[in-house]
Amino acid sequence: MNKFAYYLGIIATCATLSVSAADLTRVEVEQRLASADKSHVADLKRKDLTELDLSGLDFRNANLWGSDMRRANFSNSNLSGLVLDLTVMSKINLSGADLSNTSVFGVHLGSANLTHANLTGSRFIATLDRSDLSHANLSHVNWGVDMKNQSMGLMRASMNYVNLTGANLTDANLDRALLRYANLSDSVLKNANLFGVDLSGADFSNADLTDANLTGTTLEDTNFAGANLTRTHFAGIKDKTKLKGLSESKHLEAAIFD
Q1: What is the CA radius of gyration of the chain?
Q2: What are the pLDDT digits (tens) for 216-244?
Q3: What 8-state DSSP symbol labels residue 100?
Q4: Is 85 helix (H, G, I), strand (E, B) or coil?
Q5: Which residues make Cβ contacts (< 8 Å) with residue 243, sequence separation at least 6?
């Protein structure tokens, strides 16, 4: 390798490192949060916060719109009620975080850690493929498709291969979401709306589907062993043999097939 190529390599490496470095330190973020209130929010808009440890902080008086939060640690932080649209959050750590009533639109959260997170009342149109939402609270979430706002094509919550074991999805709206090969074992889906959801290969073993709406869903190789199917609505399902573990489910006689 000649010297010119060698120095070009060094320059390119330095440029890469400078681009990937976060714009702020944790201390600087804390200072902005400490001086903020509802009238004068902390400006973190479009900031590079990649890989920062921001755990345990209160962001309710901050503007994080469009920020880069990849691989950052927001565990046990309070992000309740924020607009996090167009942020980047792949591989982010949000375990135990409060995301109640947040808006997350057009965001990639692939392989994110949302274990034990509070997501109640939130609005997500995002990609969460392979994320861990075990024991998270998704009660009353609105993660369904907005059919009035589809000028860019069908935008929906994509949750393929997610871990939702032990999660609370009571009254959750997941209309037309993608949940292929999702693990929903031991989860609670009372009165959940799963209309038109692709549940191919999903696992509902020992889940509570009381009054859940599975009308028009794709249930190829879906497992219901041990699931509570009290008044679970399976409208449009003509071939029950496609439903794995149905004979081992609970209260099958109370399920609705029409």
Answers
A1: 21
A2: 999 999 999 999 999 999 987 777 777 89
A3: T
A4: coil
A5: 219, 222, 224, 237
